[in-house]
């Protein structure tokens, strides 16, 4: 599925504006991203998704107690009553990274299910935030600085909101990276970092499917609209354009990236310039 060019251009402008705002709206950014993948998603669809989040928030108990009570209430509502969860096959579906589809299907990747938890609980007044563990995104309730204390409670939306002990979190990190759980990993994830991670997931999904290179391209281009992003993404976009046969635009992007890294990585810059010349040669 591809967004119509006119709509895509306007929504990208809105995406960039929202990403650069003082307090970026995570749910709106996710929905504007969804518009790149789903040409049927329009303004009414965005409004409907936001209303659904509001309705779910209205079903949470009013101030149920401390962090554990908030986490348990969210798990009961979202994981229990409404059946939000994930399973291994969800990693094979692009819809699992699109918020409006996750709200419809009640299925998704850990990070998108976490976005649902965050947005619903935040609307209800809960002290909630995202926690970007390596390989598995979860949510935290309470204080992000209270590692190992009752003031911080972790929940795993992919598993229906199962509450996690410190040992559970340590095991998730060990399984994903082979490393140990550093308390710094439990800090609150910034909305823009969440967006970059979602876009990275989409790029990884598309990379395994050569016929979906257009998905990888728009995911890269949205990533580049974020105010902070790895410079290498510019190289990856240019390289992908060459792979897709847009040799002139790809060569231009390679030259631009070479200029960016020339002062700190002159050898890399020269190699990239050679790639740019090779791309232009394909036009002959």
UniProtKB/TrEMBL annotation:
Compositional bias of kind Basic and acidic residues: 9-22
Region annotated Disordered, chain positions: 1-22
InterPro entries: SirB1_N (IPR032698)
Domain Protein SirB1 N-terminal: start-end pairs: 51-200
Top-rank taxon: Bacteria
Family under the similarity heading: Belongs to the UPF0162 family.
Protein name: Protein SirB1 N-terminal domain-containing protein
């Amino acid at each position: 599925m591809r967004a119509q060019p006119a709509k895509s251009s306007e929504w990208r402008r809105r995406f960039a504006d929202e990403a650069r705002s003082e307090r970026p709206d995570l749910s709106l950014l996710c929905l504007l991203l969804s518009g790149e993948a789903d040409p049927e998603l329009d303004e009414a669809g965005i409004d409907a998704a936001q209303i659904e989040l509001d309705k779910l928030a209205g079903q949470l108990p009013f101030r149920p107690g401390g962090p554990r009570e908030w986490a348990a209430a969210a798990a009961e509502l979202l994981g229990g009553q409404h059946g939000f969860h994930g399973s291994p096959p969800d990693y094979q579906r692009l819809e699992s990274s699109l918020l409006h589809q996750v709200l419809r299907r009640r299925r998704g990747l850990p990070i998108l299910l976490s976005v649902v938890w965050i947005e619903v609980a935040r609307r209800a007044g809960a002290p909630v935030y995202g926690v970007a563990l390596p390989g598995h995104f979860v949510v935290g309730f309470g204080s992000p600085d209270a590692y190992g204390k009752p003031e911080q409670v972790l929940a795993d939306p992919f598993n229906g909101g199962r509450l996690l002990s410190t040992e559970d979190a340590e095991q998730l990190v060990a399984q994903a990276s082979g490393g140990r759980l550093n308390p710094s990993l439990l800090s609150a994830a910034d909305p823009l970092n969440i967006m970059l991670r979602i876009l990275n997931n989409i790029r990884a999904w598309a990379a395994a499917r050569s016929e979906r290179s257009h998905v990888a391209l728009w995911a890269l281009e949205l990533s580049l609209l974020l105010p902070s992003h790895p410079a290498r993404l510019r190289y990856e976009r240019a390289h992908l354009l060459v792979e897709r046969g847009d040799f002139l635009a790809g060569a231009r992007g390679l030259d631009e990236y070479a200029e960016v890294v020339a002062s700190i990585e002159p050898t890399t810059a020269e190699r990239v310039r050679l790639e740019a010349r090779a791309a232009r040669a394909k036009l002959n």
